Request: fold
Amino acid sequence: MTRTLIYVVVAVVTLSLAIWNGMPSAEMNVNIAANVGEKFFPEFTDPTEATGVRVIVFDDETAVIKPFEVSRVNNEWRIPSHYDYPADGAEQLSKTASSLVGVERGAVAGESELDFARLGVVDPLADDKDSLKGRGDRLTLTKGNEALVDLIIGNKVPDKTDQYYVRKPDDKITYITNLKIDLTTKFGDWIEPDLLMIEPASLRKLEIHDHSVDVLNGRILAGSDVILTRTSDTDSWKMAGIAPEEELKTSEVSSMVTALDGLKIIGVRPKPEGLRGDLRMTGDVTPSRSTQRELNSRGYYLVPSEDRGLELYSNEGELSALTANGVKYVLRFGDLFTGDEFDIEVGSAQTEEEEVEETEEPTKPVDESGSKKSRYLFVSVQFDPDAVGAIPTKPVPPTESETEASPEPAEDDAADAETETEEKTDDKQAAYEAALKQYERDLEEHKTKLEEARKLVDQLNDRFADWYYVIDAASFDRLNKGRADLVEEKAPAEEPTPGTSTETKPEMPAPVNSTPVPEETTSTPAPAGTSTKPEMPAPTEATPAPAPTTSTPGMPTPAATSTPVPASTSEPTPPAESTSTPPPASTSPE
Reply:
C-alpha cells in the first residue's frame, strides 16, 4: 500500500511539473506583448546585400531533406544543391530578398515547443528522428557566411490570405506573419531552361541514327539512318533515298523541329571525369567501374574507337541537327526513368529497368505517386564550315585581248574606233573594280559568319562540357522518329470517270482533224483516176478480201494495223489495182 501511494504521489508531481513547464510565465507574456509588431530582422534593409538564398524542405512521406540553394561565388551564380550548376540568380534573388525586408511579428500562435508540430514549424534540420511530422520550410538569406534572414515557415493560417505561422530557429515563440514571398525553388526557374537555344528557321539538316549497343561484345549494331535536308527556311524538307511511290510526312518533320526548339532542361547530372566535350574518353584516363556502372545504368556505353580510345554511345540512338551557320548539335539519348521532381533535378531515382528488377510491388500510377517519366540526354556541338557556304570567288581582271577591238578599223573611222575601244576598256575595268569590291565585301561577310559560328560553338561546348541532362520523356517521343514514321505511300491517282472522260474528249479532235487531210488528198488524186471512176466501187469492195491474198506480204501489214481511213487513202495507187488479176473488167475498157 505504501509503495502504491508513493507511485501515485510521484505521478501527480510529475504531471504538475509538466503542466507548469508548458505554461508561459508572466515574464514571457510581457516579452511577447512587447515583441508583437516588431521586425524580425531590423538590420536587414538593403536587399542587394544578399548574395545567396537557401531553402530546406522536408518531405514527410519519404522523410528526406530536400535542399535548394543559390549563391554568388567569384561573381558567378551557382546552385550548390544541384552540383553547382550555373544559375541566372541575380534577378530571382533580388525579388526574394525584397519580399523579406521589413517582415514583422504578428499575433502569437504558440509559446513553446509543444506547439511546433501543430503549427508546422519544426526545424527541418532537427536531429530528432521521433518528430518527423510537422516540419516546416527553412528559408535563409546570406551575405557570404553571414545570415541576413533565417526563418522557419510553417502551415498557412486557415481562412487567411498570405498569412503563415513563422518562428526564428532559435526562438520558441511562433507568430502569425503576413508573407508575400516571391520565391521559387523550381530548378528550371533559376537557370536558362532552353537547352539548345536553336532557331527553327535556321535548321538545314536532320540526321537520325537508330543504332543500339551490343554490350557483351562491345560493338555498335547499326540501324536505319534517316537524312532530311532543305536549302532554306522556305523550302520543304526532303528525305534522301525516298522512293518515287513514297512521300514525306511533313507534319511529322514539323513536329520534330518544334520539339527541338522546345527542348527544356528539367534536371542535370555531372559528366564523368575524363569524358571530353566530344564525348570521348581522354587517353590518360581509365574509367572506373563505378563510372561505367553509372553510365550503363543510364543507357550509355564506352565503346573502343578507331584511335584506340573510348567513345560514348547511347542505346537509344542519336539525332544531329545542323543549322545554316554551321553549328551541329549531336543529341545522344539515354534510358528512361521515373521519379518525383527532386529525383529528376538532382538524382537518387532508379532507372525504370532497375525498378522492375528490385521492386516487387507494381509501380504506382503517375497521378497517384507524383512521379514523372524522364530521360537522360548527352549533348555535344560540332562546327561544319560547309554549311556557311563556299568561299567567294575573286573576279579575274580583264586581259588586253578583251579590251582590244577585234576588226581592223577603216582609215576614216580610226579615231572613232580608238574612242570606242577606250570606252570598252573603261567599261570592263569599271565592271571588274565593282566586282572586286563586291567580292571583298562578300569575303569579309563570309569570314564574319565563320568567326561568329566558331564563337557560338565554343560557347555551347563550354555550357555542355561538364553536364548531361534530363528531359521530359514526351520530348524524346516527338524526336524519336524512324523512316516508317516519316514516310507514307502516295495516294493512287484517281481514274477518270465516264463523266470526266467526256470532258477530255475535246482534246481528241487533233488526231481526228488530221484524218480529213488524207481525205482531201484522196480527193486531189481523184482527177488522176477520173478515167477509172467506174472502177472506184470495185477497189473498195475488193479491199476486204483480195488485198490480203494477192498483194505482197509487206503491204497487208500496214493495211491491217492502220485504221479504215488510211486504208482508203491507199486506193489511189493504180499500180496495185492494175497488177491485181481479179478485176479483168478494168483491163477491157482500157
Notes: Confidence is low (pLDDT under 50) at residues 24-30, 349-368, 501-590. Residues 238 and 255 are 15 Å apart (CA to CA). DSSP finds 21 helices and 24 strands in the chain.
